[in-house]
Amino acid sequence: LQVSPQDSDLQFNMGNLYNATKRWEEARNAYKTAIETKPSFAEAHYNLGLVYSQLKDYPMAIQHLETFLQLSPNAPHAQNVSSFLSLLKKQAISGKQESSQQKPTVKSAL
Fold first, then answer.
1. Could you give the CA distance from residue 98 to residue 110 in angstroms, rounded to a whole number?
2. What distance, in Å, lies between the first and last C-alpha atoms of the chain?
3. How many other C-beta atoms lie within 10 A of the C-beta of residue 51?
């Protein structure tokens, strides 16, 4: 399957497929390509932030989740994203992984 790098929606959907199968690096690359084509693609920033959190790259997760909130401050899941960001920032500072019980549930935009 050939995917056009200029089609941000198609790249986003490919990222969603990779994300659903826990192929984090491929999901990251697809979301990054979608954002390069369309920098204001809020849900791509959101999903990319979640992928970076799975990859334990907390600074990049924080950056993309903050961008999501800037682009979509009234999104239905904005409050959950804010809570998740607080935990990521603590993890980035302490370098410790929070227990899964303390992580808020943030639904993927799939």
1. 25
2. 20
3. 28
Residue type at 84 in one-letter notation:
F
Please name the residue ranges forming H helices in the chain: 8-20, 24-37, 42-54, 58-71, 78-94
Report pLDDT for 109. 41
Whole-prediction pTM value?
0.82
CB 28 within 8 A of CB 45: no
Distances (CA, A) of 47 to 73, 94, 95, 96: 15, 24, 22, 22
CA proximity to 54, closest of 20, 14, 102, 101: 20
CA distance 53 to 34: 18
Average pLDDT over residues 67-78: 96
